[in-house]
UniProtKB/TrEMBL annotation:
Species whose genome carries this gene: Paspalum vaginatum
Entry GO MF terms: protein dimerization activity
HAT C-terminal dimerisation domain: residues covered: 154-212
Name of this chain's protein: HAT C-terminal dimerisation domain-containing protein
Pfam families attached to this UniProt entry: Dimer_Tnp_hAT
């Protein structure tokens, strides 16, 4: 997160002071005979319909492209910082009991009841003495390794709430990436000309598009046979 913060500062300096110089330094376009767009003209988004208040090409490249605020918002940044409180690296140097409790309370309220959130604090006190200060756990470098070590040492029963929270943290990258892929695919599948597509049909199209590698394993002839065998068709599909 420190790297993200410094990157935001450097990008802002590029926008404010170095943008004109950057455009002058882009010389490969002339060498490769690539047409340079007019920075004062309207920027057209071919996925969405063009509107009268479209921003200019220069504004799009200078501000819309070089932005991390949407990807690393304050809420996302806080979530990553709180997740770091369970990182076992450097002998649990980042461990903070209050941050772990805040993580469960603020970002996972439906996964822990009020009573469980109270019990989590008591478990963390024992965890701090039993695990954080235990030399056997000081050589761990990832949260996944910590999760495996808790299972191997049979401490998951004593710290079942902490184990649940660690499991939620481990699934966070997968769930986030899947959601982002789904929204990216939706922009390509449900365009302006297909805005009346029903939810079930849209869901089926997105599933095939997102899992395109898996979809290639199915034989087209087999799908046609199964579709034809469901009921009698007016036209012979074979």
């Amino acid at each position: 997160m420190h790297d993200v913060a410094t990157t935001k500062i450097l990008i802002q300096k590029l926008r404010d002071d170095g943008w004109s110089g950057l455009l002058c330094d882009v010389s490969f376009c002339q060498k490769l005979e690539i047409p340079i767009p007019d920075m004062r003209s309207f920027y057209v988004d071919y996925i969405r319909s063009r509107r009268e208040d479209e921003t200019s090409v220069g504004h799009h490249y200078q501000y819309d492209v070089f932005t991390l605020n949407n990807r690393f918002s304050e809420q996302t940044t806080e979530l990553l910082i709180l997740c770091n409180s369970l990182d076992p690296r450097d002998s649990f140097k980042s461990f903070k009991l209050d941050d772990v409790c805040l993580l469960a309370t603020k970002f996972y309220p439906s996964d822990f009841s009020d009573q469980e959130r109270e019990n989590l604090r008591y478990q963390l006190r024992h965890y701090q003495t039993d695990v954080v200060q235990n030399p056997d756990f000081h050589n761990l470098s990832t949260v996944a390794a910590l999760c495996r070590k808790l299972v191997e040492s049979k401490r998951t029963k004593d710290y079942h709430l902490i184990d649940r929270l660690i499991g939620l943290i481990l699934t966070l990258p997968v769930s986030t990436a899947t959601t982002e892929r789904a929204f990216s695919a939706m922009k390509l599948v449900k365009t302006r000309l297909r805005n009346k597509m029903e939810d079930e049909y849209l869901r089926d199209c997105l599933l095939i598009y997102i899992e395109k590698e898996k979809a290639l394993e199915f034989a087209i002839d087999t799908l046609i046979d199964d579709f034809s065998a469901k009921k009698r068709r007016r036209v012979d599909l074979k």
